[in-house]
Amino acid sequence: MWLIDDIEWMKRWSKIKALVFDWDGVFNTGEKSPNTASGYFEADSMGVNMLRFSLWLRDGIIPPVAIITGANNPGAQAWAEREHIHACYGKVLNKQLVLEAFCEAHNIQPENVCFFYDDILDLNAASIAGIRMMISRPGAPYFNELVKRRGWADFISTQSGGHYGLRECCDNILERNLMLEVVVKKRMETTGDYLTYLEKRNQNNPQFFQK
């Protein structure tokens, strides 16, 4: 569900240079177990990669990407390494402060960040981000309505974390930018632009921060 019109969307998206993600409840259901590392789904990972690819096609540079999570997440660290993102922050209490530090490290402003989140602990970071993509939680309809009423999100997914809500968010952004078919076709070719992007993306190795 989009909560901003096309004019506002284009104005904000034109400023987006980086992608930042919460982990639990975004890449997965948020379920915690002493013996299980919270993981991710390939469909969601593909959506994120295609969104990064679209920004590279637009700007010619690999967009900074970070995970900011309140827990110690080996699954997030493994994904960060596999996808060659820029930073993974763990055991974060105040996500707004970390988002600001990430922006400073990459010489951007919070308005240049598209932030993906799912719950209360993320709201202070969402409040300063340029675009806010919320992964819905069907068991919390009143919270979802509060976010909508207060304007704390620009999009609320129909699917939840662990049920491809993140892929839904990514595909909706691509489609709204008329880029979904473009990136899919280029990915199908596995030559040219996509291989150039992949080579440049894979030159990056993430930094890990944890208190």
In short:
With 211 residues, the protein is of the alpha/beta class. It has helices at residues 6-13, 42-59, 74-83, 95-105, 123-126, 141-150, 165-176, 180-189, 193-201; strands at 18-21, 65-68, 87-90, 113-117, 131-136, 155-160, 207-210.
Features:
211 residues, single chain, alpha/beta, seven-stranded parallel beta sheet, globular, Rossmann fold
Give an overview in words.
By secondary structure, the chain is of the alpha/beta class. It has a single domain (6-202), classed as HAD superfamily/HAD-like (Rossmann fold, 3-Layer(aba) Sandwich). Helices cover 44% and strands 16% of the residues. It is built from 9 helices and 7 strands, in the order H-E-H-E-H-E-H-E-H-E-H-E-H-H-H-E. It has helices at residues 6-13, 42-59, 74-83, 95-105, 123-126, 141-150, 165-176, 180-189, 193-201; strands at residues 18-21, 65-68, 87-90, 113-117, 131-136, 155-160, 207-210. It has a 7-stranded parallel beta sheet with strand order 6-5-4-1-2-3-7, sandwiched between helices. Helix 3 links the parallel strand 2 (65-68) and strand 3 (87-90). Helix 2 packs across helix 8 (180-189). The longest helix has 18 residues, at 42-59. The model has no long low-confidence stretch (mean pLDDT 95).
